[in-house]
Amino acid sequence: MPFSEFFATYPVALYLFALALGLIIGSFLNVVIYRLPLMMQREWSEQCHDFLELDDKQGIEKYPDFNLARPGSHCPHCQHDISALENIPLVSFLIQGGKCKHCGARISARYPIIEAFTGILSVLVVWSFGFSWLSLAALLLTWSLICLSMIDFDHQLLPDDITLPLLWLGLLINYFGLLTTLESAFLGAVGGYMVLWCVYWLFKLLTGKEGMGQGDFKLLATLGAWLGWQALPQIILLSALVGAAVGITLIIVQGRDKNVPIPFGPYLAGAGFIAMLWGEQVNQIYNALLM
Description:
about 290 residues, mainly alpha, about 0% strand, globular
């Protein structure tokens, strides 16, 4: 029996498969979220040393093969190499009580949370689009948005290594009309970038400050390339409302300095995910409220 027929007959099996796949991908995303910014910092340091013609590269060569594959997963406290059985997504964390099996040091709950969150969103995507090429494309976008959101949250950085390939992939899949037409995707990419670019320069001219990073331009352009220009107003409105609400709450509740920047990428990513899965429903609610 072909997979399409099997999953159509037993949809629960499809959801369980999506959950398991999401957990595995979530484990890999934890690696990317932690290591990619360090890899970029290492590369920038090497470029600065080469440009300044400096011989001292102390600290840069600590891990000669530092990338997404090497060194292998290990405990940050005792450097114990984590075996495959100790690295089963979510399961190993629960079995070991959230501690390193070797030294007993606490393992951050963030890792299983990201794994579980990725698994849940993967199920939502498959539940919405079924077993199809569209579902696979939506999963790739979802996983990338999770990764970008966490990196931006940690470092206020949206790496071009993720956003730019994702933008081109959005245009490519819409060449085949998976999510929207190619014309809509092209206008979405251009419009998404230009809208925030104009906001950036208008804010800078009025205040002399930079209101957002240029990575936000590229992320919105990416979402426009995937979802089309029609989704841009909804994404901008949702992300702005949630971002403003969170910012005001942090200022009032935690006394956060209003001049401290808040990463905008997670709000754009969340709004993009909502627009992809429930864009039409959100528009219907909005129209009903206006009537």
